[in-house]
Every structure is written in C-alpha cells, then in structure tokens.
Amino acid sequence: MAYLKGIWAGFNRYRYLLLNLVSRDIKVKYRRSALGVVWSVLNPLLMMLVQYLVFNNLFGMGNAENMQINAISGQPPNFAIYLLSGQLIFSFFSEATNLAMDSVLGSASLIKKVYIPKYIFPLEKVIFSFVNALFSLIALIIVFIFTKSTVSAWLALFWVPMVLLFIFNLGAGLILSALTVFFRDIKHFYGVVLTALNFLTPIFYTESIFMGKSGFIEQYMPLVLRMNPVYWYVSMFRRLVVYSMPPTLSQWIGCIGWAFVALVLGLAIFKKAQDRFILYV
Amino acid sequence: MAQPIVQIDGVSMRFNIAKEKVDSFKEWFIRKAKGQLRFEEFFAVKDVSLTIEAGDVYGLVGLNGSGKSTLLKIVAGVLKPTTGKCTVRGTVAPLIELGAGFDAELTGRENVYLNGTVLGMNPKYIDQHYQDIVEFAELGEFMDVAVKNYSSGMVARLAFAVATITKPDVLICDEILSVGDFLFQQKCEVRMRELMSGGTTVLIVSHDIEQIERLCNKAAWMRRGKIVIDGSCEEVCEAYKTGAQEMRERE
Q: pTM of the full predicted structure?
C-alpha cells in the first residue's frame, strides 16, 4: 500500500512534466510548417488516398463481395472507410511503440542529470501518439461524411479499442524501451517486425481473401492473423465503426488479454531494468 | 537533536568497464556461453559515509576523478548506489549540468516551463515566479526566441534562474558557479547566500578552493572514491591544499 502511494505521489508530482513533454512534442513536430497541425488530418487522408488508388484500382481489393456487410445498411462498407479505419489503428500502434522504443535512449541527457521516474518517457510517447490518433479521427469523420456511410449507436464505443490499444502500446513500449538501452540491435530489427505486422493485419485486404483457398499458407493464414495482437484492435474498432455491430466475445478477450499481458510484462521488465539504464545510456 | 537531512551510509558505486563493448545479442550470447563476459570493476565511490545536518553548506573537494560528482549524483537520486544507502529527507534541486532539460527548438519561455516541470515544479508556481526568472536571467527581450539561437552564457543564466526559483531543502551544485561573466557569477553567489539563509542545505563541488572557503561551513576531501578527511571547512581545505600536492609528489 505504501509502495503504491509512493508511485502515486511521484506520478502526481511529475504529471505536469508529462503534459509539457507531450505539448513540446506536438509543437516541435509542426514548428515551421505552414499547415501545422492540419497535417495530422491531411496526412492519413492522403495516405489513404494513395492506398485506395493502389489496392482498389490496381489490385481490386475493394471488391464488394470480399467485404462483410454493415449490420444496418445491409451493404458492404465503402473501401475508403475500411482502409482508413485499419490504417488509423495500425499507425497508432506503430508510431507509439516506435517512439517509445527510442524514448529512454533519447532522454539520456536528462536521465544523467536529474532524477525523473523513467517510465515517464515511454508513457509520454504513447500519449503523444494517442493525441495524434485522435486528430486522425477527424480524417475518418470527413470520409464518413463524404461517402455518406452508415453509422450506428455502436460508434459511440469507438474509444474502447483505442484505450485498450493504448494500454497494449504502453506495455510494449516499456519492454522495447528497456531492452533497447542494452541492445541497440532492437532498433534496427523492430522496423522489420513492424513491416511484418503491417502485412499480418488486414488493413488493405479482407480476411475473406483466404476463404475457400486450399493452399498451405492460405489455410493457416486466418490462424496466423489471430496471433497478431494488432489484428484484434483493428477488428474490434472496425466492428464498432465500420460494421455497426457489437464486438464479439473473442474480440473482447483478444483486446483485453493482449493489453493485460503486455502491461504486466512491460512493468516487470522495466522495473527490473530501470536502475541500470544510467550505466548504458 | 534533529535527524540529519542527508545521510550517506557506507555507499559504494561500482562501474563495470567493459574491455570490449558487447552490445549485440549475438555477441552477448556467444560470450555468455563461453563465460567470457568479463568486466573490469571500478569503484568510483567506495564505502563513503557522511552526515549532513540541515542548514549546512557542505563543500566537496578533491582532484579530478576522485568521485565527487558521482557522490552528488547519488545524493540527487540519479545514480543508485551499488551498496550502502543514501537517505535524503526533503526535496532536492540538482544543479548538476545547467540546461540539461532544455529543448533547443523551443523558445526561452517554453523552456522555462519545461525545465521547471522537469524539476518537479507546478506550472502555477512557475507562472507566479516567471517575472523573477526573466529578470534574474536578464533575458527580457529574448524569451520568445528559440533556445538554439542563445549564446551558451544565456542558456546557463536561464537555467540557473529556473533551478533556483524554488526553495529546495537540499541544493546540489556541481561546478556551476563558474558560468557567465563575473557580474553574473556574483549574482549567483548572492542568490546562493539567500537560499542558504533561508535554511536550504547546500552541497557544493568546486575546484575553486577559495569559493569553498568563502561559502561553506563544512567540507570533505575525497580521493579515489574515499573520504580522506571531513570536518570543518578550514581544516579540510588546509589539509587538501597541502596534502594533495604531497600525495601527488610521493607517487
């Protein structure tokens, strides 16, 4: 109890630092750009546009028969919505974990001179990415209006998968940031992992493309996808926002389970490693 | 008698000096398997015990590499000692390297808030003292300029102004009174004296032995991670001035 109280007192004292670091990141990100924070909305929109042109027109991924049906309209959702929703969740994951990974090393000058609870650094990066993801939601709203897509009351729960992913990102970020201090290789390796995870998440394709195929890889693909934690957050988000349906039980278990496992592991590893950071940064 | 504000009990700080740097997984596993993960041990601070009472102005003297800065970092909570225990009863403001928390892209004003919160201050508190900080740093017209365009003296002045705006229980100074021109140095000393008269306990590392004699009431002389002598400032400074030279010659 006294231990938890100590952690809370520390957090309370440094919560303004957390806010200041997040606002610093936002300011520095858009300093000297003419459009400034508008880029947070414009960037996902343009990215989506490029992917739309490539995957819809070139590869025909946006075929209506590949899509699940929206529960209310009885129609498959617009491919633009499908793309953007997946992209939004995946970029939150990749940006948060990537930034968190470098956060402790990047704050070496501070860590060496002042006492600050070390978890502040990965936590700050995850919050910063969360704020970015919230800005990107505006892009999603714009596309919703533009394509006159159907929404339901389930849309109101859009934040649930995002908050659960926040917890997962924090756990993963704690693990990555702690290990990177001791093994810089992780930095280089993680880029490959992110690309692999990107392809193992149905962002520009639908799961149904594996249906009815007899090839060895196609047979096991749905199973492989389900081992990817990001898959669960994307599918829960889409279920609420794109398909107007309540999340399934396995989505709940997948999202909460991964978040819990990542956070517990992350806290344990970080706590064990943090006193030795200073000797390696 | 009241409890001492800083209590250092048998503190040692060991660093492993890797002879060859191992920072890839492959290398590490190979060496671990072969049992070749050997380091040279180096004690920057070895079995040091010190007691500092509230209100003391404590000077640490010693040659380069004697462990003074390491000891300060342990008191500041930046380093965790390998063995032993360091207890500080109260808030600590470290002036170890000025401007450590500054972001070069941000303006002076933004950095005041960032650096203040790095030191654990409340933004409201910084609001109230913002004018004092600007006046002390003499940077009135430059506060909205990015810090990357500041001169090094300007950065140091701003950092000192932010760090000393609170009245911490313990103030830790590592060679920082040598920043800026002589006028600003005098100003810093005045500010330090104000803090001391307000009851702040101060720990100073300096190579300027006259400065130590002028400011401190107690001191300790460190040599190779150990305390040679501690006690009243005059005694220690006297011993250090004569002793350090002798020891060097004997070697």
A: 0.86
